[in-house]
Amino acid sequence: MDSRSSLSTTDSPSCLFVTLGCAKNEVDTDRMRALLLDEGFAETDEVDAADVIIINTCSFLASATSESIECTLELADQVASGVRSKPIVMCGCVPSRYGNELASELPEVTAFVRADEEDGIVAVVRGVLGMEGEQVSLGDGRVLRTIEGTSAYVKISDGCDRFCTFCAIPYIRGRYFSRPTSDILAEVRGLMEGGVREIVLIGQDTGIWGCDLGPDDTLASLLRDVAAVVRPYGGWVRVLYLQPEGMTDELIATIRDVDEVLPYIDIPIQHCNERILRDMNRSGSADELRELFDRLRREIPGMVLRTTGMAGFPGETDEEADELVNFISEQEFDYTSVFAYSPEEGTMAAEMADQVDEPTKLERTQRLIDLTEALGFAATARHVGERVKVIIDGIEEGENGLEFIGHAWFQAPDSDGAIHIAEGEAAVGDIVTCDLVDSFCYELIGVMV
After folding, report:
1. Is 397 exposed, middle or buried (0-12, 13-18, 19+ CB in 10 A)?
2. CA angle at 383 for the pair 378 and 384, rounded to the nearest 5°
3. Maximum C-alpha span of the chain
4. Which residues does 46 contact at the CB level (< 8 Å), separation at least 6?
């Protein structure tokens, strides 16, 4: 659960924002938050002080759907004066996935807003609060974001056309579409002017950005344009959620040659076995993936690789599970997210025969987690002895008093650990130089130079 601090006035209705799920949901919540604050609403982080509760839900996995519903019901229980006087608005993936079924299943919720309807949040909130007036149109092209941190996610696309057999995203978010370059650059410019120092480009499938725009619109061209915007601020650009097919010659050269674009490559492989990948409606094989990663390491020396592996896909044999373990061990990825396969309602894989039983699935998942943690901890330790630039993200109470918390180019914010600095002078948002002197798990100890 993520809610923000109070920005308040005594006369304006107050909104409590709760976000569940991934970074893309965080961006969507921030957009809704900005629209409401721009219309004069206030914000609170307390249920009792809220006039309306806005919960942005996740439905990527069945467990995420359950968490979203449980959180909604917990919030409803806390509304002492009754749902109608303190309405709950459920937004995002759960309403997008389940639509009209929800009204009868969740009477505690006053209104449901699909992901593609969230720009109309002001009118929805006015309606549930019984307020007159309509939402002001944002046709003037204003970019509204309220991010206050040093790193900001920027969505460059939404939806997905891949239809992987295990994934419900195309049914939740719809078909793939790219945001126009002008909109993205305007958002990036506003974020940099507001103090952000790292832009993280995200989408369901970032590598094919621009395929539905003009012939010259590619992710590589977008990265160069974004780099030009962040350059005067000394900023960084990172891109997540690339697919193997998206690693074009142009993109590899851009990551290698444009200083502001970090040599941090996130490619979710899910598996390496050709038969399993085919059943997932994905392409490739262990040899093709091996060839790709060898090429990336050869052409972008010193780069960092993040991936995702899935354990227990229907029909996965012991030998195929071993193949994935061996492949990940061989490749020594810097960071790996591991998921147990989840049979999602409405997906083709959920109807497949030979579903892997839960004990076997969990054993395979744990084996992958143990391996990837060992590899990740070793990769982190290899940075000890380096001198790096660090973005200061915050100041926290450590074991020996206050310490600066930051991250370097090889650490994606909120994902890959942090750098802890005990002494020095800096403010949040500063980029400082540090010597890395020690590590523990995914964390590093830095000494400010």
Report:
1. exposed
2. 100
3. 65
4. 6, 16
Give Cα 78 to chain centroid, integer Å. 29
State the Cα–Cα distance between residues 171 and 165, nearest whole angstrom.
12
Residue 85, pLDDT above cutoff 80 = no
Structural domain boundaries of the chain?
A: 14-129, 151-381, 387-448
Q: What is the mean pLDDT of the chain?
A: 89
CATH number of 387-448: 2.40.50.140
> Residue 137's pLDDT is what?
47
* pLDDT tops 80 at residue 421: yes
User: Which residue, among 75, 86, 91, 83, has the nearest Cα to 49 in the 3D structure?
Assistant: 86
Helix (H) or strand (E) holding 294: helix 286-299
Top pLDDT among 410 and 110 is at 410
pLDDT at 82 over 60: no
CA-to-CA distance for 23 and 161, rounded, in angstroms? Answer: 20
Q: Which residue has the tokens 């006035």?
A: 9
What digits encode the pLDDT tens for the residues 130-145? 887 655 544 444 556 7
CATH of domain 151-381: 3.80.30.20
DSSP of 90-151, one letter per residue?
Answer: EEEHHHHHHTTHHHHH-TT-SEEEEGGGGGGHHHHHHHHHT----PPP-TT--------SSE
**CA 278 from centre of chain:** 26
Residue 74, C-beta contacts closer than 8 angstroms, at least 6 positions apart: none
Among 102-106, 132-136, 315-319, 413-417, the minimum mean pLDDT is found in 132-136
Show Cβ contacts of residue 237 under 8 Å, excluding neighbours closer than 6 positions.
198, 199, 201, 223, 226, 227, 230, 260, 261, 262
User: Measuring CA to CA, how many Å separate 281 from each of 271, 274, 276, 314?
Assistant: 12, 10, 9, 13
- How far is 401 from 107, CA to CA, in rounded Å? 48
Indicate the CATH number of 14-129 among 1.10.10.60, 3.30.1490.190, 3.40.309.10, 3.40.50.12160: 3.40.50.12160
Per-residue tokens: 426? 């800096």
Q: Which residues contact 153 (CB under 8 A, 6 or more apart)?
A: 23, 24, 26, 27, 200, 202
